[in-house]
Amino acid sequence: MAIRLLFPDDARSWLRRRYERQHRSWIAGTGSWPLAVSLGEPTERQVVEDAALIRSWVDAWSAWRDPEQLHWEERRWPRLGSQQLPARLRLESGADVARVVGESARWQLAGERYDGLVQRWSTLAGSPALIRNLDLLADYAAPDFERLLALILWLEQNPRSGHYLRQLPIAGMDTKWIDGRRRGLVSELFRAIRGEGEGDDFHELCGLRQAPHRIRMRVLCQRLRRQVGGLGDIEAPIEELAALDLQPERIVIVENLETGIALPQHAGCVAFMKLGTGVSVLAELPWLRDRPALYWGDIDTHGFAILDRARSALPLARSVLMDETTLLAHRAWWVEEAEPHRDADLPHLTGAERAVFDRLRANLWGQAVRLEQERIPWPAAISTLREALEASSPFVR
């Protein structure tokens, strides 16, 4: 029978896994201590039959750097007599585990920052939001952590400032510093401090003014350009575009900016580009209602998710160049989608679109297949797009 013995490296690996799963909650004061790790209980027969292994096991534990953690037991056997063997590690706290796995400095810093935040805002004690982000906070450079504290304190004291981010009187604070990850952290902590539920917009939660949502539009028709002072390429806040008295007959929505810029002229047509998941904002343009629209995006799971959003805003939207035939005809240009879309609930897809989406999610054609729209040869793509535009029914006044 094989001897089940835990060597020091094995114990460190086990403790590392335990530490990674539980250290954040340990810092917050939970956990059952002491933590005992059994090292093995060889029998006399096993010692006799594999003396070299037992000797190496005993020698390895004899070199353990924290002998106060290591408990030995005397074993008395008929043939071998009295023997002292390593029995268990006994770790009294999370700090002990951190020291064993080489995380002492990070553990101490995370604990200090947790205590500081809880001391300032008692509602954060045991907060899942704070516990979840302890690793991120421990990795912050000191100036960034102080800036974070200053921001949360200022927001608490000025709950409805109406400022833009760049206006906040905090050194080093700008929209570049509050990137997506930091913005999520601020939202989680501030929401926990205020005792509010999830779902609030970052700017609304913090009482800040949000920069106007700007969208990029190309007017592909000379007649329509005269209605906007001759402009053919417009980027403006959605509110200003909504106020235009524009009467397009057809709409094209493309996922990528370069594709939209390269679109040729077409009578009665306007095009929108690079909206991504914000495509549903088009519902705020009253002069798009009841107009036929074409959506052309990447053939990947996110492309179909955006198509679903586009159709929720413009019910008459049809997809183009997003079918199985197009995908399979351009196999040489496939790439891998970095992180496929997780939500399978896309109620606005047609049966054919849904079939392609489901097969992409199931990796029927390969791992995370993706065909970017700009990889389709341009002459063929524009020919198909033009045919689809001509086939779409124009708006009848």
Would you mind describing this structure in some detail?
The chain has 3 domains: 8-100, no CATH class; 104-206, no CATH class; 214-391, 3-Layer(aba) Sandwich (Dna Topoisomerase Vi A Subunit, Chain: A, domain 2). Helix content is 43%, strand content 14%. The model has no long low-confidence stretch (mean pLDDT 91). The protein has 17 helices and 11 strands. The longest helix has 20 residues, at 8-27. The radius of gyration is 31 Å and the shape is elongated. The protein is an alpha/beta fold and 397 residues long. The N and C termini lie far apart (88 Å).
Write the layout of secondary structure elements.
Layout: H1 8-27, E1 35-38, H2 44-49, H3 51-62, E2 70-77, E3 81-91, H4 94-100, H5 104-120, H6 128-132, H7 134-139, H8 142-157, H9 180-194, H10 202-206, E4 214-219, H11 222-226, E5 233-237, H12 238-242, E6 250-254, H13 257-262, E7 269-273, E8 293-296, H14 301-313, E9 317-319, H15 324-329, E10 335-336, H16 351-361, E11 369-370, H17 378-391
Parallel strand pairs: 6-7, 6-8, 8-9
Antiparallel strand pairs: 1-3, 2-3, 4-5, 4-7, 10-11
From the structure above, extract its key features.
397 residues; alpha/beta; Dna Topoisomerase Vi A Subunit, Chain: A, domain 2; six-stranded mixed beta sheet
